[in-house]
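Friendly challenge for the regulars: who can give me the structure tokens for this chain first? No prize, just bragging rights.
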Amino acid sequence: MSVDGLTVRLIAAIDFLSVDSLVLVLDNIAEILRDVESAVSESRSVIDWHIAAISFSSPLTVTLSPTEDPQGYARQTIAASIAGLRQIERSSETRPMYFSVNALERAKKLVSVLNRDVARLIVIPSEGDAVTVSQRVAANVDALLPPPHEELGSVEGILETLSIHEGNIFAIWDSVAGKRVECHISPEMLAEAHAAFGKRVSVSGRIRYSGLGTPASIRVEEIYVFPSRSELPQFADLVAS
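First reply, four minutes later:
Bragging rights claimed.
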């Protein structure tokens, strides 16, 4: 196992595990790692996580490791993620350190596979004790989060992490809130979002705010792409006109 690896073990409730369950687990584990890394480093996530090892013999086991860790935050990110999951499993008294609203919601989605074809879900760090997560995580997340609310508005940031799994979703890095915001779009807007990938945008629509008052997600109705520096009028052009 990699020094900075994180292993997920899925014990099937039936004779097989569905692809959807495996993808859901890996997607939400990766999102928790990225979100916690952002909180630990107080900047955007830069670690690229990859599958370092996988075993299909029962139980199915997958190990994630950083492809690169330029700032050296992988080990602290894994430790904080494990500590947060263990705390949520045990109690709903306080929110774990480095766990944003998005990380809490991802933890809740993670254990949703226990309603499907997974009997037990175990998360194992390369250093320290494993944590077995249960449906208590979902219940405790609900208790930790005040009721969210929705209102019309806009969010600005860099469009990134475009995905068509479980709906058409991209994320933007909101520099004001200092976090990633999930953006849900219609299939008709997928090409427009793809064309804006990596660019600074303003997305408008119905924003879902957490009980803490920060944007958690937005149902996008419009995408505006800010012009790049090269597209802005230059001083020489203004003088010539």
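The mean pLDDT is 88. The longest strand covers residues 149-163. Your move, everyone else.
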